[in-house]
Amino acid sequence: MTDFDSTCDLYDRFEKTARVADPVFRDFGQRRTFSGAAVTVKCFEDNSRVKETLGTPGQGKVLVVDGGGSLRAALMGDLIAKDAVKNGWEGVVIHGCVRDAAVLATLDLGIKALAAIPRKTVRNGEGQRGLPVTLAGIRVNPGDLVFADEDGVLVLSPEEFGTTA
């Protein structure tokens, strides 16, 4: 969505307003650099809202999932990630786990998550979409601009980014 050189350069430019996530995420997708407008989901060990959201058009968007940092079950696997690619999503940031890591590495999608685990979640239709979420030490609001690369995840409001863009 928004071209940028690096999260480091963005931080230097927006030092006073940039929100930088704690360095807890690993890269799982083929795409290492990605950015877009945040679409948010809050869920805990139930990936119903993740599947639902990534099944919709996602051009210019990054799904940000507050999974409560759970390391017990994967909130996204290869089938859901393939839907994300098919629907044009730029990337996914999950404060939780993924599965099918070998397949995820082949997909043209930015994927950051805490870890990989074989166990899948339940789908009971729980979780919320479109609300502010807090993960890895930062708050992410729907519509915020998410920038991710090998150095980490940085978030700016559209207004902040527009001030010197």
TL;DR of this structure?
It is an enzyme of class 4 (lyase). By secondary structure, the protein is an alpha/beta fold.
Strand-and-helix sequence, N→C? HEEEHEEHEHEEEEEEH
In whole angstroms, the N-to-C terminal distance is: 14 Å
- Estimate the strand proportion: 25-35%
Helix count, per DSSP?
Answer: 5
- The poorly predicted ranges are none
Backbone structural class: alpha/beta
| Overall pLDDT level | 96
Give the proportion of residues in helices: 10-25%
Note the overall shape.
globular
| Biggest sheet details | 10 strands, mixed
Radius of gyration from the alpha-carbon trace, in angstroms: 14 Å
Number of strands: 12
Structure overview:
Belongs to the class II aldolase/RraA-like family. One of its GO terms (molecular function) is oxaloacetate decarboxylase activity. The protein has about 160 residues and is an alpha/beta fold. Helices cover about 20% and strands about 35% of the residues. Strands 1, 2, 3, 4, 5, 6, 7, 8, 11 and 12 form a ten-stranded mixed sheet that branches. The protein has a two-stranded antiparallel sheet with strand order 9-10. α2 links the parallel β3 (about 35-40) and β4 (about 60-65). The longest helix is centred in the middle third of the chain and has 9 residues, at about 80-85. The radius of gyration is 14 Å and the shape is globular. The model has no long low-confidence stretch (mean pLDDT about 95).
